[in-house]
Amino acid sequence: MVSIYSDTNAKVVVETFTRQRDGEDIIIGRPEVGSFLAIPSEAIDALDLLARGKTIGEVGQYYLDKDGEVPDLTEFLEMLSVHGFISTLGQDSKKNAVKSAGSRSSIRFHFASFPEELAQKIFGPATVSICIILSLVAVGLCYLDRSLIPRSSSIYFPFSRTLSIALLILEGYFALVLHEFSHLVAARAAGVDSKFGLGHRLWYIVAETDLTGLWSVPKERRYLPFLAGVLVDATSGAVLIILIFCCRRGWPPLSPFWTNLVKAMIFAYAMRIVWQCFLFVRTDFYYVIANF
After folding, report:
1. pTM
2. What is the per-residue pLDDT across 89-123, written as a single tens digit (0 to 9) for each?
3. What's the pLDDT tens digit per position in 124-136?
4. 3-class DSSP assignment, residue 238
5. Is there a contact between 260 and 247 (Cβ–Cβ < 8 Å)?
6. Torsion angle, CA of 278/280/284/285, rounded to 10 degrees?
7. Per-residue pLDDT tens digits for 246-276
8. I need a labelling partner for 124 at 20 to 30 A (CA). Which of 86, 160, 171, 221 fits?
9. Distances from the Cα of 178 to the Cα of 46, 68, 70, 198, 229, angstroms
């Protein structure tokens, strides 16, 4: 089958796209459909020429005059078409891109219009500094009092087991939603469109945040959105550690039931952070390292 992009006299429609240099490549993107590609920096000239109304043949001649050879423009343009960056006259350029983006997950997304100004206040420098300070204080308290260090024995409930386990499960789902929502808010603070959704995998409830739009901003601005969930988990665990430390000194008083439950929550937060080190399942730390 002959490709429509093999016609040297043909012109194409180039959709508006973002571009970010990433090493030797340039990441082009259409955030509105969640489509991003990394292409060689020299290939961006082809898109710019096509956007100015040049034919495919004229673009090929440009590279022939410049480099002495003509690249495989047909395959390149077909790839761009599949991802919604270009189209022929009368073709819907969003069709394939939207279909591709929508097929990645069956989760229904929400909160796509979270206010950017509010997000910047929530994840501003002051908030991040407070989170880091609380986490460091908790580490210091664990160093002074080794009994505060989370241990697996913390999830043993000597009494009210059913109620304790039920509350721990509910807290786990709340922490999961808060973790993922933190990614969304941090991304919006960076000026990136993001979406949060709830769904299920078989009988498990799952939360997911679409951070695809982060590819449209410089790499140094991607770290906080990637780490926002872990930062919130660490801060939540730190607050609970400080609470237990204070309770052991008489304020505020906690019954043995609530003391044991809080210690179990601390252990659960610690395990969520440890889980992020399982890089083979593309955790938050995986994306941080990949971005670096």
Report:
1. 0.80
2. 655 545 555 444 444 445 567 777 889 999 999 99
3. 999 999 999 999 9
4. helix
5. no
6. 70
7. 998 888 888 999 999 999 999 999 999 999 9
8. 171
9. 43, 55, 52, 12, 8
Burial (CB count within 10 angstroms: exposed 0-12, middle 13-18, buried 19+), residue 32: middle
Whether the Cβ atoms of residue 195 and residue 110 lie closer than 8 Å to each other: yes
Radius of gyration of the chain from Cα atoms?
Answer: 25
Asked if residues 230 and 273 have their Cβ atoms less than 8 Å apart, the reply is: yes
Give the number of other Cβ atoms within 10 Å of residue 193's Cβ.
20
d(CA 123, CA 133): 15
Report residue 87 as tokens. 């189209």
Helices (H), ranges, the chain = 44-51, 56-67, 73-82, 94-102, 116-122, 125-144, 161-189, 223-247, 256-275, 284-291
Q: Which string of DSSP letters, residue by residue, matches 105-159?
A: --PEEE-TT--HHHHHHHTSHHHHHHHHHHHHHHHHHHHH-GGGS--GGGG--SS
What does the pLDDT read at residue 101? Answer: 46
Both tokens of 183, joined, read 């990614």
Does the bond joining 252 to the residue before it have cis omega, within 30 degrees of 0?
Answer: yes
At 171, is the pLDDT very low, low, confident or very high (cuts 50, 70, 90)?
very high
pLDDT of residue 170: 95
Backbone angles phi, psi at 108, to 5 degrees: -90, 125
Amino acid letter for position 156: Y
pLDDT at 153 over 60: yes
CB 268 within 8 A of CB 151: no
Q: Do the beta carbons of residue 200 and residue 146 sit within 8 Å?
A: no
